Each structure stands twice: as C-alpha cells, then as structure tokens.
Amino acid sequence: MAVTPLRREDAPLPGSGLAARLAIRADEHRGPTAGLAPGFVQGNLAILPQRLAADFLRFCQLNPKSCPLIGMSAPGDPRVPALAEDLDIRTDLPRYRVWRAGELIAEPQDVRDVWRDDLVSFVIGCSFSFEEALTSDGIELRHIIQRCNVPMYRTSIATAEAGPFHGPMVVSMRPMTPANAIRAVQITTRFPAVHGAPVHIGKPELIGIADLDKPDYGDAVEVRANELPVFWACGVTPQSVIATVKPEFCITHYPGSMLVTDRKNTEFAIM
Asked: What is the model's pLDDT at position 10?
C-alpha cells in the first residue's frame, strides 16, 4: 500500500519527526537517531508474519518494561497511523535487520524488496524518549556527548513467555554518579510507556553481564570511578528473543536506528 507523499506547500518543520523521517527516506541521514528530532518519540521495530502476531502482541503485554508497545500496523500495511500520517515503515528507519530462521541475513537501508502482504509491524517505546527529560535535568548522557550508540547487553533476566516467544531481557546502560542515578530513577518512573525506571543499578555481574566494555549491541562507553552503571530494559529485547525463537522471517531495526514518530515525548509522561 503506497504512502501519499507530501505536497510542496506541506513541507515539514525543521527538527520535527516528519522532517527526520523524510531525511532518512531520502538517504540524507544514516547514523544513530539519538538526539534527532528532540521532543519526538522514537520507537524500536519488530515486523513479523501475521501468524505470529497474536503471540508477539501477548509477549509485549506480558513484558511491558522491555516491550512497551506504542503502535501496531494492519497486516501488509506499511503505515502506523497512531504514530504519524506520513510514515512508511519500509523506508523510514536509517537501517534495518532482516532475519530468516533466526539468522541475520542482511542489514539494508530499506526493506521494500523483502516486504510481504502478511507482515505486521510492532513499534516499541524507546529509552531515547526519556533521555530528553534526563538531559533537561542536567544529567549527562555519555553516548550522546560522544555521539555514539548507547551500550546494550543481554542479561540473565528472563522475559515472560508467550507462545513461542521467550528469552533474555536486553538492557541499555548509562553511567551516572549516585546522585544522578537517584534522580534518574525519579524522572524515568514518569515514563512507563517508554521503559520506565531502571531495572538494575551497579554490579552488572548480578544480571549476567561479564564485561561492560563488550556490549552485545551499540558502543562501549567509559564508566568513571565515581559512577555507577544504570540499566534500563531495552527495546532490543525482541532481537534477543528472535535469536532464540528463530521465526521463518522477521525484520527489526538496526540497534540505535529508530523510527522517529510525530508523537511528543510529553504525551507519554505521567506528570
């Protein structure tokens, strides 16, 4: 199903979610989306055949910390109207991952060539949404300062099973001083629709992380002597689950390359 393009007189506002998607669609932005379109919600992506959609929906409902569902498409429809009008899920992320039988087979810049009429798209809330609130409070986020991807790790924390879907939780990590970590808990608790409060602070070995310098996804960042590693449930969890379940076909986002929506972060905050 085609997405109707904008008319010239409907040009998007600079810095908007739509402007970000159009830049990505036109191959003008191919890096991580952290810090892109400040104020607008970003989402993780999982696209599955319709026969698995009901079980995956249930998986999201049972694991709201890891998989807070913010949008879902009709089968075969590349649009997600709840998140934006001019949105094409096949082209509007900087990079994707394509999987067959649990094996990663490609990391393309769009997925039109592999699109199928039975595919259902799930958009899952992203921690980038609460990062705006953290930085507004003066809390430094090192991956943004260093312009790299947030480090992410598979853990020993099990997710709740739904049908064939099961596997370990993935977490993202941000180093913080103890005072900032306490403040971050207070701030992110207000954002349950985009992962909410941290799931663990300090001692990564207690959740199965052997080496912070070797993330499973993203880029390593320094944890200084006066800092603690603070871990949030991460929307890359479905990719870890997919590696366990091995569905015959699946598409996900490339870690750090999110879908930028027209929804505002403030819409998802509990004030």
From this structure: 58
- Spatial neighbors of 264 by CB under 8 A, at least 6 apart, are 39, 40, 41
Positions of the chain with pLDDT lower than 50, given as ranges: 6-9
**Total structural domains within the chain:** 2
Q: What is the pTM assigned to this prediction?
A: 0.87
Cα dist from 257 to 84, 159, 164, 179, whole Å: 18, 23, 26, 30
172-189 residue pLDDT tens: 999 999 999 999 999 999
Q: What contacts 15, CB < 8 A, 6 or more positions away?
A: 37, 38
DSSP symbol at 227: -
* CA pseudo-torsion sign 14, 17, 18, 22: positive
Nearest to 123 by CA among 81, 95, 155, 174: 81
Domain range for residue 20?
A: 8-126+242-268
Instruction: Kindly give, in sequence order, each residue whose CB lies less than 8 Å from that of residue 101, ignoring residues fewer than 6 positions away.
Output: 246, 247, 248
Residue 134 corresponds to which tokens in the numbers above? 């953290």
Query: What confidence score (pLDDT) does residue 252 get?
Result: 94
**What CATH number does residue 33 fall under?**
3.40.1640.10
Do 145 and 201 belong together in one domain? yes
Q: What is d(CA 184, CA 32) in angstroms, rounded to the nearest whole number? A: 23
